[in-house]
Automatic annotation (TrEMBL):
Signal peptide location: 1-24
Entry keyword annotation includes Signal: yes
Entry keywords, A to Z: Hydrolase, Signal
SUPFAM superfamilies: alpha/beta-Hydrolases
GO molecular function: hydrolase activity
Organism: Xylaria grammica
All copies of domain Peptidase S33 tripeptidyl aminopeptidase-like C-terminal, residue ranges: 450-491
UniProt-recorded name of the protein: AB hydrolase-1 domain-containing protein
Source taxon at top rank: Eukaryota
UniProt family annotation: Belongs to the peptidase S33 family.
All residue ranges annotated as the AB hydrolase-1 domain in the record: 88-272
Any Pfam family: Abhydrolase_1
Keyword DNA damage: no
Length: 503
């Protein structure tokens, strides 16, 4: 997904009840959950989670038809050490879709000041449908058994794991949308979670913030940093409101047109480059630091390929798996899941992958147990947002389109190509019927013929296995005056910040 992005989404989701710090007593004047904060059309900040302030901002369900009512969006703010009320707020736009900005800010609070500068306030939010914000949709309406049954029939393994797996995945995928469509009958606006609606919510936020500061709402500008799917929110905002860009840094760029088309094909372009770096880095690190070391990078690559072929033909039965003590079968799909999880953060994850490969080579495959099975464990928010965004433009709706997508990804990546179609879950959208108004649907290609009020800074690693460099260049070409900043590195998210850009 966004891309994106199961690993990012799962890592950044913050459960609604954070509670107070273990080493402190709860302050009765401080909120420790958004349920205790009253939604308001004004930006009313309440002390929360000891070091933050929080707000639930009321926003229209549909900005073109306000008679439909409102929902609430959860915002959280951390003041920089040298920030004042007049200081700009840098809005951290979370990834996903389905990622929690509340969790993101909470998790990375210690890094924000050193990265951006202590003269700013730092704000993030849970987009519509996510975690602490309104319109959260449970497609299975609490029916855990039904959800597990769907996962069993749909998540059968990598797309070409058998002669019938592609067809099984395609036809079973319709079940998901059908359950979501049924759930929306009890939550009639559950699909009003599209990215254009979220972009408009950000405009509402910056205007409300300006009003609180005694400034003109019509002059308010968005200062923001977006990563992964957050770059789609950013480029969508820039397309809708080009005169409202204060400073915008977008890092790890998704091709927004492919996102809205439900294509995701660009994402496989640099996956094998990233995997090949494992062999060269492992060899350079030496046997003391890389447990899967070999005398040459080619030797390491050949041994990885050998493990792939081995598991493809001979899955490994385990009579008992660690603490659960249950039997299972380690498969080729588990190995491919290891690969796709690792390339999100290769420098951090390569040592762990080396250890697992070393164990497999020595006859112990238990570390892979259940790895593929855990892919379907994320909340519905990511799928619902993505499917609502793409339902009019979905290019992976027919079985012929799905087969073409699979053929392309397999041809581009021998390591990730066969798991990417099921991992990205493009199929989950094919039976969605959102019936959304034009006002909250992306109508045109993202980008403008006129420049934004301040040039956008796009940043990318030279080898990005999920949000590739080509996507950064493509999106930058849509925004006159924008630039692409490159870092010689491999991985997805970088947090490349230049102080003079923010000044």
């Amino acid at each position: 997904m966004g891309v994106t992005m199961k690993r990012l989404v799962n890592a950044l989701i913050l459960f609604a009840g954070l509670g107070c710090k273990a080493e402190s007593r709860c302050d009765p004047g401080v909120a420790y959950g958004f349920d205790n904060i009253q939604p308001s059309a004004n930006l009313t900040w309440t002390s929360c989670f000891d070091d933050f302030t929080c707000s639930r901002l009321e926003v229209p369900l549909d900005y073109s038809n306000r008679s439909l009512g409102t929902t609430s969006v959860a915002f959280i703010k951390l003041a920089g050490k040298n920030a004042t009320v007049e200081s700009p707020s840098i809005v951290i736009i979370p990834g996903g879709p389905g990622g929690s900005g509340v969790g993101l800010l909470f998790s990375y609070q210690a890094l924000l000041g050193p990265i951006f500068g202590e003269q700013y306030n730092f704000v993030s939010f849970d987009p519509r449908g996510v975690n602490n914000s309104g319109l959260g949709l449970d497609c299975f309406s609490g029916n855990v058994e039904a959800r597990l049954a769907f996962n069993r029939v749909y998540s059968t393994g990598v797309t070409n794991v058998s002669s019938t797996s592609l067809e099984e995945q395609y036809y079973s995928s319709s079940i998901y949308g059908e359950w979501c469509n049924d759930a929306v009958e009890n939550e009639p606006y559950g699909y009003y979670v599209t990215t254009p609606a979220v972009a408009h919510d950000l405009l509402t936020f910056i205007e409300a913030e300006a009003e609180v500061a005694g400034q003109s709402p019509s002059d308010a500008k968005l200062w923001s940093y977006g990563v992964s799917y957050g770059t789609v929110i950013g480029t969508t905002f820039a397309s809708m409101f080009p005169d409202r860009i204060g400073r915008m840094i977008l890092d790890g760029i998704l091709n927004a047109d492919q996102y809205y088309d439900n294509g995701w094909s660009d994402s496989v372009d640099q996956m094998d480059e990233a995997m090949e770096k494992f062999s060269s880095f492992c060899h350079s690190a030496g046997p003391e630091k890389c447990s899967f070391w070999g005398p040459t990078p080619a030797n390491i690559t050949a041994r990885i390929d050998g493990i792939i072929y081995q598991l493809q033909d001979h899955p490994v039965p385990l009579s008992r798996v660690r603490d659960r003590g249950l039997p299972t079968l380690v498969t080729y799909s588990d190995l491919k899941t290891l690969f796709v999880n690792t390339i999100y953060t290769p420098l951090a994850s390569f040592p762990g992958m080396a250890d697992i490969l070393h164990q497999i080579e020595n006859g112990n495959a238990s570390a892979l147990a259940g790895m593929f099975e855990r892919l379907g464990s994320e909340p519905d928010a990511g799928r619902v947002i993505r499917c609502a965004d793409s339902y009019r433009r979905n290019k992976v709706a027919t079985i012929e389109e799905f087969k073409s997508f699979v053929e392309y990804t397999v041809s581009k990546s021998k390591y990730i190509g066969d798991i990417w179609p099921i991992y990205a879950e493009t199929l989950a959208c094919r039976s969605f019927q959102p019936q959304l108004p034009d006002s909250i649907v992306a109508q045109d290609p993202i980008g403008l013929d006129r420049p934004t009020s301040f040039p956008i800074l796009f940043t990318s690693n030279t080898i990005d296995p999920i949000t590739p460099l080509a996507s950064a260049r493509k999106m930058s070409s849509r925004f006159p005056g924008s630039v692409v900043l490159l870092q010689e590195a491999v991985g997805v998210s970088r947090y490349l910040i230049f102080y003079n850009y923010l000044e």
